[in-house]
């Protein structure tokens, strides 16, 4: 049977073009313009990003300038009170140039100058004892230095409260405004 469709014959030029377009060929550099190989690009970006983050972390680290306390080693003068307050778990032990301050802050001797009042430290009695020691001689009135040291068992807030108690009197006058920290021995 004959088909009802007329057969069309292709020219030689048309067949050559179809053959040329149908055969796979290597693409030239101009033909690859639409395709981008991103793997090497991402490798470079990742390495650069890693170095930038490391540099930023080192460069922009915040610093606070501070000077560490310097030990003041000076020979005690005869006119100096040389007051040292030791904060111990049982209370306050005071030491002046003449030796240890006795209980009740009355004279020299051994023991705690200001024992705890119940479970709490007695900061008012400590302040009163310091005022009494400072007023005990006319040469001590201008004394501005005190050394505070504490046992390791003493909480930090107790040390700070002791520092505050030794700086000013209840009336707001300077008691010992220059505070140094010492090592308990």
How would you describe what is shown here?
The structure is a single chain. The protein is of the alpha/beta class and 185 residues long. Helices cover 30% and strands 14% of the residues. It is built from 4 helices and 6 strands, in the order H-H-E-E-E-E-H-E-H-E. Strand 5 (145-150), helix 4 (156-167) and strand 6 form a beta-alpha-beta unit. The longest helix is centred in the N-terminal third of the chain and has 21 residues, at 39-59. It starts with 11 loop residues before the first helix and ends with a strand. The mean pLDDT is 78.
Q: Keywords, please?
A:
4 helices; 185 residues
Concise account of the structure shown:
The protein has 185 residues and is of the alpha/beta class. The chain has four helices and six strands.
Q: Can you tell me the overall shape?
A: rod-shaped
Radius of gyration: 44 Å
Please report the distance between the alpha carbons of the first and last residues: 123 Å
The topology string of helices and strands comes to HHEEEEHEHE
Number of helices: 4
Indicate the proportion of strand residues: 5-15%
Spell out the blueprint of helices and strands.
Elements: H1 12-22, H2 39-59, E1 83-88, E2 91-96, E3 99-100, E4 114-115, H3 123-134, E5 145-150, H4 156-167, E6 178-181
Parallel strand pairs: 1-5, 5-6
Antiparallel strand pairs: 1-2, 2-3, 2-4
């Amino acid at each position: 049977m004959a088909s009802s469709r007329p057969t069309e014959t292709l020219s030689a030029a048309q067949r050559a073009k179809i053959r040329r377009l149908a055969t796979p060929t290597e693409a030239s550099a101009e033909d690859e313009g639409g395709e981008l190989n991103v793997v090497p690009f991402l490798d470079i970006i990742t390495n650069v990003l890693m170095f930038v983050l490391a540099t930023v972390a080192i460069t922009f680290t915040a610093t606070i300038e501070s000077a560490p306390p310097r030990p003041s080693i000076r020979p005690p003068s005869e006119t100096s009170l040389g007051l040292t307050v030791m904060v111990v778990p049982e209370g306050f032990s005071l030491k002046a140039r003449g030796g240890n301050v006795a209980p009740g802050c009355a004279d020299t001797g051994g023991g705690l100058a200001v024992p705890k009042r119940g479970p709490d430290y007695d900061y008012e009695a400590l302040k009163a004892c310091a005022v009494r020691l400072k007023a005990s001689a006319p040469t001590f009135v201008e004394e501005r230095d005190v050394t505070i040291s504490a046992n390791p068992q003493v909480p930090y807030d107790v040390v700070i409260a002791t520092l505050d108690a030794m700086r000013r009197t209840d009336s707001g006058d300077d008691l010992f405004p220059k505070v140094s920290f010492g090592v308990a021995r």
